[in-house]
Batch of 2 targets.
Target 1
Amino acid sequence: AESKAKAEPITLDVAVVMVPLPAQGHLNQFLHLSSLLSARGLPIHYVGSATHNRQVLDRASRLHNGGTACRPIHFHDFTLPDYSSPAPEPDAAIKFPGHLQPAFDAARHLLSPLADLVRSLASRSRRVVLIHDSSMTFAAGAAASLPNVEAFCFHTVSAIAGFFFRWELRGKPREPAVEILELPHVSNEDCISQQFCDFVLSQQQTTVADSGRLINSCRAIEGMFIDLVAREPEWQDKKTFAIGPLNPITFNQASGNGARHPSIEWLDQQPPSSVIYVSFGTTSTFSDEQVAELAAGLEASGQRFLWVLRDADRADIYAETGGDAVEKEKLPLDYYTRVERRGKVVRGWAPQPEILAHPSTGGFMSHCGWNSCMESFSAGVPIVAWPMHSDQPRNAVLVTDVLRVGFHVLDWDKRAELVASATISDVIERLMASKEGEEVRRRARELGGEVRRAMEEGGSSKTDLDAFVTHIII
Ligand code: UDP
């Protein structure tokens, strides 16, 4: 159906404007949604700072086939006031990384140039649809008082995390569905800073301007929570479209021909499902002590591993160098010699969706960022959950306690500033080399099939996406 849509582009007088939150996971999701809508013939305007636009494009193009899908998208580089990000705190564990907040605050200055763009498009188009991140609700203001402009909120975090976050803010009203669940308790205070909570709250009132919302998730992953969010008081009269997971794996773009990243070449040499992939996303930096424990834990596990060792992203470094920050040397050189036959350490950016889709990958030790979870679910790969902040602890509950496709490194109420190497090696062995782990891996494979089917013709997400496209073009 996708290639048919490409062959016969619908040329309509509709323009779509995308407003992501400037953080890698969110930028990616907006890029994927842009590619999908663009493949349906819709003109896409992607809005952000020059640095963030460059970051998302560079990184997409480093993924096999990833760059090609971006070509038709029109990127608008807007200038934001200078801001400086404090260096990420080493060991950001159990704290929301404050170094991201200046970029989020600066992004609010997009409103004025965004409003100009939307006005200009609205004067030339029959209809404009503005899609903003659920943490960029102020952007809906650019649609206000323009009769042919409609705003939609794109929920870039899981339904489970969004639901529990807002449910707690609403004072935990009686909700039988929640009581039945009896899930491990994670409180807002435990996973986000007051500053970030204020940032989100300051935007709540503008959700009234939205016509509906999109959720980057699917019924196979969290149908129960999608139903719960659809019933939320502020949204129950509006349409909710669950259109995910949007990623190169469900788009069949996570493999291909051409230059292969060294990590993929290394995976090619390993037995099927034998490698645990270890990566913690783009917002956290481990302390040197934690890196040493992790290195020792991976070594002691006796399992094959592919470890992406990098610090948190810093927009200022990206702006200066056009590349990833170069990390200081954190591992003693003899470590590489000792583990060389069964371990590979990647420094800098790795093609994660390709790694997860590779047949040699059998497990993922992850911080449980929402993209990482969805990529792992899509590839049918089980997870060792090591959440740190924001939506991650609730995503980890989804992985381990709801879907049962992974194990916690440590239960959230036993989380520690330093996770010992023995804990790390035990949980890796439990996943990769135990009877119990086999069950979890089997469930993850089944979930992978269901998730990929959701995005195919007749699947729940494809059906919702088609309904959304129909809604915006009519
Ligand atoms: N990612 C990647 N290579 C890396 C690190 C991250 O491709 O070396 C991608 C990963 O596939 C995911 C995104 O960056 O799509 C990270 O988003 P996520 O929501 O998992 O975590 P965040 O970085 O927002 O905490």
Target 2
Amino acid sequence: MKHYLLSALLFFTVASLSAQDGGGNRRQRRPSLRPRNYLQRPPSDPATADTEGNHVNAHGGCIIAYGDEWLWYGEARPARGFTSEGVGLYVARRSSEQGKSLEQGPQTQHALDSLEWENKGIVLAVVDSAGSPIERGCIIERPKVLWNERTQQFVMIFHSELKGRGYEAAQTGFATSSSPYGPFQFHHAQRPNANIWPADFKKKDVRKAQSLKESDFPKSWTPEWIEAVARGMYLKRDLEAGQMSRDMTLFVDDDGTAWHIYSSEENMTLQAAELTPDYLGYTGRYYRIAAAGQNEAPCILKRDGRYWLICSGCTGWTPNEARMFSAEHIEGPWTQHPSPMRGENAEKTFGGQGTWIWQPSPGKYFFMADVWNPRNLLTSRHLCIPITFDADGTPIVERK
Ligand code: GAL
């Protein structure tokens, strides 16, 4: 009862922000911009200092190798509020003493801190032109960057939300630059794969999905509602506009095919969509992962021919238990495994939420996560934990 009273109070307090969140029954599943743990204490994990002694302001990001450098791209967050400043870049030398020992030495829990990260500033900046998808006041989250050999461009792909519309737009943003240091030019934002059914949907799957209407399932979380979501109720609802795309990652397979993996269908189902060869759009081939499993924050690695996907549940900025899936083909089928996290607070992913699996050298993998501090997102901490593998090749993320 108490819980309901508290929820009602919270609802009225945050009603205006929640309304921006897309409204409707999404509110029950998509946390409001103002999180429940808004009043939590400042982060207890140590800060990650750049060469000027400031905490690295690159969240929900990725680290990629380019020449002699590690490039760490991430969300540049302001100290107050939930909107975006753009995407920031930090650079460290691979040939430095620390870089060499990171690539050649044993995996340590201090990989990030051992490097000297130079702040290169904002490489994709929000703009002042009204109506632009990246107009100041927008949200840019989870940026990932790939080098496109064919076009000789760096392509940045990110979760793009429009100014003043909370998390309702659920689009993918694309930006390019011929230099890794930017400035990246915004290309466009879109929802993936409008008017296209998943590649493995047979006629009967399409027929079933077509018969599902939200209004027939007014109550969320009933077995019937979950079944309807799994069979594609939201997939069908969004068919014309394109699929929702929020938390995301990118992955280039051994054959050069690039995949965008994102939380879709009201965050209830992940989708893996093949990118065009220039990485600036979709080929139309896409698959669903863990339908109605409610996963987000996807990170992926491939080892010995097996794909491993580590995700979180959907509790906004509040940490939850990680989930893990594996498959022999990115197209699926995917099998769920227990969480790979081990050590104190493993059941809450050590207070963090995954963002990227960093592979600094062959065979070495780190699970990177953000310990969100929604009171001051800029100070959100970075976890970088070595991934080891058990005798069967199953990943283990142990924080010591
Ligand atoms: C999380 C998501 C973050 C951010 C946050 C906003 O679930 O992983 O990237 O979107 O919600 O509440």
